[in-house]
UniProtKB/TrEMBL annotation:
<dbReference type="InterPro" id="IPR002052">
    <property type="entry name" value="DNA_methylase_N6_adenine_CS"/>
</dbReference>
<dbReference type="GO" id="GO:0032259">
    <property type="term" value="P:methylation"/>
</dbReference>
<dbReference type="InterPro" id="IPR002941">
    <property type="entry name" value="DNA_methylase_N4/N6"/>
</dbReference>
<dbReference type="GO" id="GO:0003677">
    <property type="term" value="F:DNA binding"/>
</dbReference>
<dbReference type="GO" id="GO:0008170">
    <property type="term" value="F:N-methyltransferase activity"/>
</dbReference>
<keyword id="KW-0808">Transferase</keyword>
<dbReference type="Pfam" id="PF01555">
    <property type="entry name" value="N6_N4_Mtase"/>
</dbReference>
<keyword id="KW-0489">Methyltransferase</keyword>
<protein>
    <submittedName>
        <fullName>Site-specific DNA-methyltransferase</fullName>
        <ecNumber>2.1.1.72</ecNumber>
    </submittedName>
</protein>
<feature type="domain" description="DNA methylase N-4/N-6">
    <location>
        <begin position="10"/>
        <end position="221"/>
    </location>
</feature>
<dbReference type="GO" id="GO:0009007">
    <property type="term" value="F:site-specific DNA-methyltransferase (adenine-specific) activity"/>
</dbReference>
Amino acid sequence: MLKAMPAECVDLAFADPPFNLNKEYSSKINDKISEVDYLEWCKNWLDEMVRVLKPGGALFLWNLPKWNIHLGAHLNQQLNFRHWISVDIKYSLPITNRLYPSHYSLLYYIKGEKPAIFHPDRTPISCCRHCGGEIRDYGGYKNKMNPKGVNLADVWTDIPPVRHAKYKKRSANALPLKLMDRIIAMSSDAGSVVLDPFGGSGTTFVAAELTGRHWIGSELDCSAIAERFASLQGDKEHLLDIQTNKNILFKQDDLARQKKSGRKLSKDYRLQINGDDCQCDTDEIVQSSLFVNS
Ligand SMILES: C[S@@+](CC[C@H](N)C(=O)[O-])C[C@H]1O[C@@H](n2cnc3c(N)ncnc32)[C@H](O)[C@@H]1O
C-alpha cells in the first residue's frame, strides 16, 4: 500500500508495528524473526513512510525502547528528531537482574526544519484520587498557571492501559484511544491526512475519523476494524470523556472530590468556564454543566 502512494501526501504518519515478541496475531504473521531481519523489515516501511510524509509533517513510531534505539538511529539520517516520549505503561512482568520495563518509547520526528502543525494538548493538574487535592504544590505560581492546563511534557503518565471491557476492542495490542487522540490533536488539523500502516483494531482510524481527519491505513486482517466501525457509539462516548478532561486546569471530578472532602481550592488559580475566565468558586464550577474545554 505504501509503495502505491504518491510522495508527500500525508500530514501525520504513525506506526505501531508488531514488536517481534512471538505474539499471536489474527493475521498469522511470524512475530519471531531474527533481530537483523526485523530491523531490516522496519527500516523498509519506515523509508516509505518518510517518502509519503509532507514537508513539515510528523512521524511517530511506537515500539519497545530496545527497537526504537536502532530505528531512531535510522530515522535520524532522514528526519529531524523532536522527542523520545516515554509513555508510562507497564508491559511485562519483572525479570530477575533487570529493571522493571515500565515505559514504551514514542519517537517523534519532523520532515524538515519546522513542524507544519504543532498544538500539544494541555493536561489538568494531577490530583489525589481520594480527596481531590493537588498532588504537587504550585506554591506562589498558582496565578501563573495557564487556565487551559499544564504544558505537555515528554513523559506521559496519564495514559491508561486498555483494560476496561467496554473500551477494549480486542484481546491484545489495541492502543488506548487517549494516546491516539493526543498524537492526532498535536500534529494534525481537521482535514489533515493521517496514515497508519498497522491498523490492528483501528484505534488510529477511529480517533482520526471522530475528529474530522482523513485517514489511510492497512492491516492484514481488517475484520476487527470493520466490526469496530460498524458501531462507533462506544468510542464516541469514550472520546468525549477524553476531550472533556483535557485543556483544562482541573478536572470536574477532582473538584467534586475536593468539595466532598471539605477542601477549598486556592483563589489564586485562574479558571475558565466554557472557555471564558471566571472568578467563581469550586461550588459553582462543580455545579456548572458548562465546564467543558474550548
Ligand atoms: C501492534 S498491532 C497494531 C495495533 C493498533 N495500533 C491498535 O491500536 O489496534 C500490529 C498490527 O500490524 C499488523 N501487520 C503486521 N504486518 C503487517 C503488514 N505487512 N501490513 C499490514 N499490517 C500488518 C498485524 O496484523 C497487527 O494487527
